[in-house]
Known about the structure:
Domain Biotin carboxylation: 1-447
Pfam families: Biotin_carb_C, Biotin_carb_N, Biotin_lipoyl, BT_MCC_alpha, CPSase_L_D2
Radius of gyration: 27 Å
Number of strands: 41
CATH architecture of the largest domain: 2-Layer Sandwich
Strand content: 25-35%
CATH class of the largest domain: Alpha Beta
Protein name: Acetyl/propionyl/methylcrotonyl-CoA carboxylase subunit alpha
Keywords: ATP-binding, Biotin, Ligase, Nucleotide-binding
Helix content: 25-40%
Number of domains: 5
Strand order of the largest sheet: 14-13-10-11-12-15-22-20
Domain Lipoyl-binding: 586-663
Amino acid sequence: MFQTILIANRGEIACRVIRTARRLGIRTVAVFSEADADAQHVRLADEAVPIGGPRPAESYLRGDAIVQAALHSGAQAIHPGYGFLSENAEFADAVEAAGLAFIGPKAASMRKMGSKAGAKELMQAAGVPVVPGYTGEDQSPDLLAREAARIGFPLMIKAAHGGGGKGMRIVRSAEEFLPNLQSCQREAANAFGRDRVLLERYIESPRHIEIQVFGDAHGNVIHLNERECSAQRRYQKVFEEAPSPFLTPALRAAMGEAAVLAARAIDYANAGTVEFIVDPSGRFYFMEINTRLQVEHPVTEMTTGLDLVEWQLRVAAGDRLPLAQADVPQQGHAMEVRLYAEDPEAGFLPGSGRLERLSLPPPSPSVRIDSGVVEGDTVSIFYDPMIAKLIVHDRDRPAALARLREALAQCAIEGPKSNIAFLEALARHPAIVEGRIDTGYLDRHLDEFVNVQAPAEELVLAAATATLLAQEQGRREQAAASSDPTSPWAIADGWRLGHAGQRPLAFQHRGERIELHAQGDGGRYRIRVGERIASIEGARLAEGALSLRLDGQGRRFRVSQRPGRIDVHDGARRLSLAPVAMYRHEAAAQAAGDDRVRAPMPGRVVALRVAAGDKVEAGQELAVLEAMKMELALKAPRAGTVAELRAAEGEFVEADSVLVLLEAGE
């Protein structure tokens, strides 16, 4: 076994590898960019080496710097994690040429799978079923358009060297093909350094099933069962589980055999994932082989009791696989979701900023947290905004779903916006509960998961009660510091001579004002919201928990309060409200900026769709911003005339920068 390894990655996966290495007594060396100098993987490793600037091309994609760091630190092997250089055959070659072990497959196997096009051709020759399409090297737009017409619509354009849901477009008509081709090629070149694409028939309402495979240098190849990853948004997985509720025993066995056949066809060693698309009738087609560890590998670990990183290390060190196919365990049901700094109500716009609060459920045999950040860390603009992976395990699927919901209810993130409420809606949605979701369901029915309806009155009343209690506590503390702390006038807690004073409250929720009127004090109130007058008794707020009797019925809520925001949760639903004072300030600023189209976050301008003097309509796309590995379309807030462009294509802009100015007074 190795004595020292270098981890050529960052964030959650780097921390994950460090945990296993430490358990095995292996010394770890981290690498880091300027943006990650204080990151958790740097703090957890035994040694950490700086390798360049904040952008991936300046650091985590610099294979030469990483190899030199490994040599200087005395490492015998390099673990690439996932993303970055993990599937780069040239990097794997460079590692081995330097006399180091690459903790992954051989470069020859990676080259066969590094191109989706080549992989499809190879699998087809090996007898593995593939989706009809075009995988040729001729990438001229005219030829690709002709091939698209031959394949028929709908079809999918894919980055040939891509992954992680990047560089993919669905095209439903010939008129849409060329604009989508150009956007896909641009995104592929930016994310993967190569703009080659492939075309394939788009299978409607498919399931996404992947098989975890493992091989060693002695010719042994097995699979470790499947994971279902059908819950996806824009081809990005958001919910994974094992075993799949869709597969029959016969289909599971057939797909497992096909996955092993695919791995053997490329002499595969180490961890890999064979991904299949399955149509509603159960016909499955090869998609790709990911020649690395997958983000969702903990699902397999929880249902098998195995440590896949340990297997990676042992296989890379020359050991044989620890188990034969017949001995692979399968126990219970596991699920994984990913907590992101993103705003589902704003089209899942990636976020960044300091994690003022990060509260996650305590780890246990049934709940696992894989994260690369802690409270107080910053979610950087330069990398994927994932905060943590939440993985749960229980005896069967209903029990695992119940455990997932409870774990999500314990999560609280303050600072950048997060997708927690979206994940809670997902975990309770009938399509998930009944195990019938397909890969396009979320994109077709997103409004069922992003909570756009009016907030539940009980949550609003809980927020109002917690606000009243906090106000009274604050006033008592203020009175205690006054010259006459016993004076009722100093306390100002809602008491009035002869009656309990009425106090107006107002919150803002998604642009709508919610007004309430409260009477009472000390945990006893009558609160009017809309047509309802609610009786609150016995209200107490302690350590983030609000208990009360609402119209005589006992209730309990989780509450988080901070300047300008209050969050409440009843165990199934959460609600975030803003005081009206803060909202008015924001609304005034927004109203003043109706003539300006601003960058919602730092990024690079990749396309300008208009020029000065152009007439535009409300909602028309004006520019495209690339940020956090995504392309964001910036649209006109109203109809008008473009007065000025304040950015150029290729320019890096800061958040809130004005990119397009419309003529005023139109």
